[in-house]
Design goal:
A hairpin with a 4-residue loop joins strand 1 and strand 2. The protein is α+β, with helices and mostly antiparallel strands. The chain contains two helices and seven strands; from the N terminus they run E-E-H-E-E-E-E-E-H. The radius of gyration is 12 Å and the shape is globular. It is 25% helix and 38% strand.
């Protein structure tokens, strides 16, 4: 798993399911391959999260409701 922070990028070996469970709020899984910090979300459009730094992250239909509740 590639973990991006403001300062650095890390590579860790784990399952997304395990990482998502261990992080908890404010981290929310928005896609099967993405976990985001809701504090860094600038905007949520249809199937996309736009982060403060301009990064676009896809949102799966299955996880959209959970993301909106958290945001």
């Amino acid at each position: 798993i590639e973990v991006h922070t403001n300062e650095k990028k890390y590579l860790i070996y784990n399952r997304m399911k395990n990482l998502s469970a261990s992080l908890g709020f404010p981290f929310v899984r928005c896609h099967r391959s993405h976990i985001v910090n809701v504090n860094k979300i600038q905007k949520i459009d249809d199937q996309t999260v736009i982060l403060e730094n301009g990064t676009l992250i896809p949102v799966s239909k299955a996880m959209q409701e959970e993301l909106l509740k958290s945001f």
